[in-house]
């Protein structure tokens, strides 16, 4: 049985491995499929508009299931949710490798996303029970390092696998690693269960509907679907959101953690996370076009020039995780996001055909800033929640990240659709402004009365 002060050594190392390996697989799978999408579409005879659903269904399913599965984890135990997620993810990976039509592959990817949601929804909650309270920041830093490293090596790994074999190999590699993850997961702590709670089906349904309408509304706005359709979707979103909020006020504890939003540091950490990931996504969508267009670099050089960003994020996350156990998240996060904003601004003012070094050090500055922000912010979010609500905090952490990514991608599409030739630069400028705003929100946590963290209370 887990305690609030983590696992003893050497069991802690196995617990870390059991959390990190499935997390790596779920992040890697998202990035490597993006790279292989043209090859998959061509082999299956699907047009680009149809092929993109192979990626889109994965993101949508993960996002809508994070909070429900995190809540379920509080009821049945985080270990069970994580292990079940690994089983589903591994089995669905094999199904993806064996499929021979775009329809069945999309379906298999949806099932695979269910497993990924199980892994992602409780990984931070489990970290809270694996690491001692005094070292929680290091645990959160480890998660940030795994995510950053997986994101960095994803495109390279995909290219390497496609160079020696067909695209099904991208999914087949998950099978042995998934089986090993399942074996390692036996060492995960058995966390307290709250069997008196129930997962409210009506809340889950309203939550899925609200989130789907939110995604639909920003997609309609970004792609100029027409005033009538956009207005209808937004009105339906407002109605669904109102019904969801009213339902959550009747529940104890609620599916959507409105109880945790009463804690100032949690509320501001969530807002900071949404804004920062929005800025990150805007930059990552626009930068390849910007580097290959005005900056005149090749596709291969684009990948190399962008690598310093996730690399520095991972390195900074290690340091930030240790600092987060000693210094306020508002200070560390604010400094990191200011670095990110400056880096994005400096990228936006690069002259045509800038030297690679000028691009690289700006990328590194952005990555270091984001890494300095991410670990302390995530630690603040998870530590602010009472120990029995770790699952809700973990699910909200992932939901905030994906909301930011979805909104950032939609904003980029809107800017590029109406920004003309200067759309890429304008996107970077807007991303810098959003990052600066997030830095301001982060620093608000330093105000008197906003810094208290009810860790484990």
UniProtKB/TrEMBL annotation:
Record domain Major facilitator superfamily (MFS) profile: where: 15-452
Subcellular location: Cell membrane
InterPro entries associated with the record: MFS (IPR011701), MFS_dom (IPR020846), MFS_trans_sf (IPR036259)
Molecular-function GO term, any one: transmembrane transporter activity
Pfam families named in the record: MFS_1
Gene3D superfamilies linked: MFS general substrate transporter like domains (1.20.1250.20), Multidrug resistance protein D (1.20.1720.10)
Organism: Arboricoccus pini
Name the record gives this protein: MFS transporter, DHA2 family, multidrug resistance protein
Keywords: Cell membrane, Membrane, Transmembrane, Transmembrane helix, Transport
Membrane-spanning intervals of the chain: 12-33, 53-73, 80-101, 113-131, 143-163, 169-189, 201-221, 227-245, 265-291, 303-324, 331-350, 424-447
């Amino acid at each position: 049985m887990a305690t609030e002060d983590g696992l003893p050594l050497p069991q802690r190392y196995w617990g870390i491995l059991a959390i990190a390996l499935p997390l790596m697989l779920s992040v890697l799978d998202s990035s490597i499929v993006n790279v292989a999408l043209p090859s998959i579409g061509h082999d299956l005879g699907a047009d680009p508009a149809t092929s993109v659903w192979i990626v889109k269904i994965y993101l949508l399913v993960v996002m809508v299931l994070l909070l429900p599965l995190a809540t379920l984890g509080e009821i049945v135990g985080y270990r069970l949710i994580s292990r079940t997620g690994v089983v589903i993810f591994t089995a669905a990976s094999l199904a993806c490798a064996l499929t021979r039509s775009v329809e069945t592959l999309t379906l298999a990817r949806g099932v695979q996303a269910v497993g990924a949601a199980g892994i992602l929804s409780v990984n931070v909650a489990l970290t809270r029970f694996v690491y001692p309270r005094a070292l929680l920041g290091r645990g959160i830093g480890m998660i940030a390092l795994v995510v950053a490293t997986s994101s960095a090596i994803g495109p390279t790994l995909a290219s390497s696998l496609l160079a020696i074999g067909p695209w099904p190999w991208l999914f087949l590699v998950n099978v042995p690693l998934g089986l090993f993850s399942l074996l390692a997961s036996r060492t995960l702590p058995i966390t307290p269960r709250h069997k008196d709670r129930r997962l409210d089906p009506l809340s889950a349904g309203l939550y899925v509907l609200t989130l789907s309408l939110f995604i639909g509304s920003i997609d309609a706005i970004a792609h100029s679907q027409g005033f009538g359709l956009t207005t209808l979707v937004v009105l339906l979103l407002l109605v669904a959101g109102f019904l969801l909020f009213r339902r959550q006020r009747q529940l104890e504890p609620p599916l959507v953690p409105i109880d945790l939003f009463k804690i100032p540091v949690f509320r501001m950490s969530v807002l900071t996370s949404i804004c920062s990931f929005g800025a990150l996504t805007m930059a990552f969508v626009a930068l390849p076009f910007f580097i290959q267009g005005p900056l005149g670099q090749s596709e291969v050089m684009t990948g190399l020039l962008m690598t310093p960003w996730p690399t520095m994020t991972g390195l900074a996350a290690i340091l930030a995780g240790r600092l987060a156990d000693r210094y306020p998240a508002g200070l560390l996060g604010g400094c990191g996001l200011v670095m990110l904003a400056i880096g994005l601004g400096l990228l936006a003012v690069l002259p045509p055909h800038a030297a690679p070094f000028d691009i690289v050090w700006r990328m590194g500055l952005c990555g270091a800033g984001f890494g300095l922000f991410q670990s302390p912010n995530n630690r603040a979010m998870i530590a602010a929640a009472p120990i029995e609500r770790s699952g809700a905090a973990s699910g909200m952490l992932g939901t905030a990240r994906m909301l930011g990514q979805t909104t950032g991608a939609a904003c980029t599409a809107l800017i590029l659709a109406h920004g003309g030739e200067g759309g890429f630069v304008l996107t970077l400028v807007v991303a810098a402004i959003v990052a600066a705003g997030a830095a301001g929100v982060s620093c608000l946590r330093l105000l008197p009365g906003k810094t208290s963290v009810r860790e484990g209370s």
